[in-house]
Queue: 4 jobs
Job 1
Amino acid sequence: MSGWVKYRGMRGVNRKMENRRYHAFNGHLRRIFSEKVFKVALDAGFTCPNRDGVLGSEGCIYCSGRGSGDFAGRAELSIHEQFVQGREMMNRKWPQAKYIAYFQAFTNTYGSVETLRKVYEEALSEPGVVGLAIATRPDCLPDDVVRYLAELNRRTYLWVELGLQTIHKRTLDWIGRGHDYRQFLQGARALQKHRIRVCAHLILGLPGESREDMLASAQAVARLPAQGIKLHLLHVLRGTRLAAAFQRQEIPLLGREQYVALVADILEILPADMVIQRLTGDGPPADLIAPAWSRKKWEILNAIDAELERRNSWQGIRSCAAMDDKD
């Protein structure tokens, strides 16, 4: 069961209201705010316990030098300067819109409450900002930080994005994640206690994982206290430890058809009310080594739509809630 309430019969609502076979983030935001809302990605200058020596110094094996914030603003600029730059870029396409300030790079709860308050409140003070999205690790949620997040959640529209990537310990160890599934559950439950929206991240195509392994991770997220999910394709970026392993031909990557079919399988088992914030991942063109097909994001998304159409399927058709409806 996702969210705070167990929803039934959502599949028809989603398809009718969003003209999609899954509960897309864009449609979710339009229903809440009645207008276009987009994220402005920011780099607040945080680091990560997997980089500063607390847990490690090299980061996760796939993580870029910008801490997965390759499309965020530049940390040497103020939050205001980054926000203005990002807003102006997006306003070329959507001149009338609202904004979510997205703290994307590195671990954005890895600091004192005083530090967090300074950067979050600065972002919230920008005209047109209706909410925050905060990307972090589940092992970086001490009690005082969670209390501050709960305060923010009472004042604004808030998502906390938690990197899980996989539930399998052998894979978490191989990628050098530095936490386990138990710690993820603890972090997610601490946030749920305050009704804070949680978005879980999964990476598909991690080395050594079978289709069944990846579906098991998705099934675990489907049963979590999580309101959203991001699915990422494993891609290889220059300068990462993954790139070195790939060049040694140690890393097989998913093909496009495999990935599209797998995403459709996962959508079918996720609860119908879970918000789908991302269905694929991409890297900066200059840094992306492989797979080349991941550059064509809209082709991938269209292929996922087509696969669901071919199956006459939709998000939640095989979820626990859907199975309960048949009883």
Job 2
Amino acid sequence: MKSYIKRLSDGSKLWEKILWWIIRLIQAGSIVYFLVIGNFQYALQAFGNLVGMFAWEIMMLFPERTFFRYIKSYVNTPLILGFFAASFGGVALNFYYSIPGYDSFLHIIGGGAFVWIGYEICTAMQLRDKKTCSVAIVLLCSLGLSMLFSNGWELFEFTFDQFFGGDSQHWSLELAIEAGSGVEKGIFDPHTPMRFALMDTMTDMVCNVAGAVIAYIGLRIKPFHHTGKNDVNKIIEKTAE
């Protein structure tokens, strides 16, 4: 336990810890709020997002031979902000229904962020295995991981809504009208409300791909782990000498 606590202390910066815990406490407050008003589905969804906010601490529990231990703490910050924007902003503050395009914007950002996270994972695998790899292959794998993560989230949303009565796909006609989104004026077709979930999922997937492609192009231009003094291939080659 002492070595684990030391890893957490030495592996992350003070400002990161402060930011993480402020957001986590706010998220925990939203869980309490949902429980008080009796919305147990939203409370469960918010709890799942809160667990996701501990991703880096969970990764540091793994043995040193796994690539998780090579993931830097700064990866946790965009993950926490993403969970917070999706859960607290989208659900607790009702932005999914009250702000047009909020969900699509998050998915574009998320698709790009997952390419970056995939890049960090691939680089961590290189460091663990002490193997050099072409940056083109690394980035192609990063793009694939983004598709897996972002579309995996869509599978979670579908499963959660179908089997646990949630509204993570945000197709509820009643909630949309209550938030003043304009569905009753024809922005969506109120005569086919069961298509809302399908439209949400397909729109999210398109946005995921768009964000991923943008991030992929950006990393092709500047693969920061494979250029200059941070070139992981050169670091591995020097270690092998």
Job 3
Amino acid sequence: MKKITAIIKPFKLDEVREALSGKGISGMTVSEVKGFGRQKGHTELYRGAEYVVDFLPKAKLEVVVKDDDFDSCIEAITKASHTGKIGDGKIFVTNVDRVIRIRTGEENDDAI
């Protein structure tokens, strides 16, 4: 099993969710986060004063998938979140050794 963590632009979240649903993935965790990479920040004007916004709003999506579903999920996230502009985000992949559904005690693939 793999855990896919994707940091994407917030307005792309619905498209990514729909793309993953199309691949049969129904469970995911989403968080509103802030951060920056090469995009750095940007300047904004507020009540006539200019200030720098270092951290930009992002959406963090986490999903655990079976190894068989991994490649199609990465492809779906990449296609749905791509704008071609700086700040599109990143995808991180980690191995998951064990998953347990608390309610039933099911483990691993059965718990996903």
Job 4
Amino acid sequence: MAPPKNRPLPGAMTDRNLALELVRVTEAAALAAARWIGLGDKNAADGAAVEAMRHAFDAVAIEGTVVIGEGEMDEAPMLYIGEKVGCGGPKMDIAVDPLEGTTLTAKGGPNAMATLALAEEGKFLHAPDIYMDKIAVGAGLPDGVVNLDDSVANNLRNLARAKRCDRSDLVVCMLDRDRHKQLLAHCREAGARVVLISDGDVAGVIATAMPDAEIDIYMGSGGAPEGVLAAAALRCVGGQMQGRLQYESEDQIERVRQMGHADPKRVFTCEQMAQGDVMFAATGVTTGAMLRGVRRTGTSAITHSIVMRSHSGTVRFIEGHHNLAQKTWTAT
């Protein structure tokens, strides 16, 4: 029997409330980290974000397990892989980066933010803290328009054709790293422009789905955990992403096999890295292409956040006004 019209489906209100609770968690981390902007201490900024996020999770009505975190249990006080969060409720898996862009925060650079994603138990790729080769584009493009195993020139040619533009109109985003020198050269040889970012490849991937960011494609290697977070965000907006784990030793390959990945060379799609109904939330710490940074005014602060959900495809931007005197978790 169909539910009466104009009445929310069972669980719909809970889901909507949960989305707002996730934003409160990222707001807490961002507010705490913002006190360290420009002070040159990335570890202190990261530690403040971690503790604020952990404390904020205590009020979220889930039985959550961190499956993408900052380290292992013996590396606490980080939000470690396997840590339990929440005050009870449905079993959910959590992917977190309490401060995406620790160096950016320490130096006062753009695009630092607090991020997290949530999915049903067992729906996130269990990615170890190693590198992942990535390629990502935004929504509204033919399936398979880019491929991690194709050449840079072919990927850019196919993307330009799909967007009905010249390759010279395309903008590629990648981390500014020595390991990307050849990739950078190939992009420029193909006629594309390149935006090099110092840190924060979650923001770089998400930028492909944000028209105002003017980024057409993300390429290059970065952290595998960050790859899962970025895939979760792209799932919510219909973007495409592929990733392949990269290894520096046989021990890393063996560890990946122990985590259940039989083929260490497998290419994972966006849907394989973040399955099911996914929610993603982020709050700006420093101002970037997608989010404004925390603005402090005496005992108050203003935050700018994004929350999205794959089930509905809805993206919401939220501006929060905070009385810092009532938020003990912002203290450092």
